[in-house]
Amino acid sequence: MTRTRLTAEERHEQLVAAAVTAFSHGGYAGTTTDQVARLAGVSQPYVIRIFRTKQELFIAAVNHASGRIEQTFRQAAEREASLTSLGHAYDELLAERELITLLLHGFTASAEEAIGEPVRACFGRIYQTVGELTGASAEELRDFFAVGMLLTCLGAMRVIGPDPVPPTPWIQSMLSAFEKH
């Protein structure tokens, strides 16, 4: 059996994908570079050689998630540059539970300044992108992101998205409010 040798860029992408998976399950504090290495099928020293620290690896994973959101919003805006169009595009991203869960871990790890600054920068880029693409006012952007954050939390809790938990009365009440809009 012959193994295909990956380019440096492909290996980097492989490590970031493994990091998204690992950090989405264990968070920043609960995940080791060894876990990421095992998921990627490489050695832990190789991960450190590429990213130097767990912190840099985590930030790369958060940047990847943020980039996916920006890319999705830009593609949606090509069809229709409205908050509604971008909102529907985000609904599709909610199916990528690891991606949204990683974002939540990024927000909570932001208390550590070395992580907080790049995570805030990612969020800021998404905010600016939505504003530029749609021309929405500050109030409209606030409401768009407030609903998006709520949906992110609901998706991470498996209230919405693939394989949702059975709906309880509070879930049914909340989801019916979304259906009215």
From TrEMBL:
Keywords: DNA-binding. The keyword DNA-binding applies. This is TetR family transcriptional regulator. Residues 32-51 bind DNA. It comes from the Bacteria. Gene3D superfamilies: Tetracycline Repressor, domain 2 (1.10.357.10). One of its GO terms (molecular function) is transcription cis-regulatory region binding. Residues 9-69 form the HTH tetR-type domain.
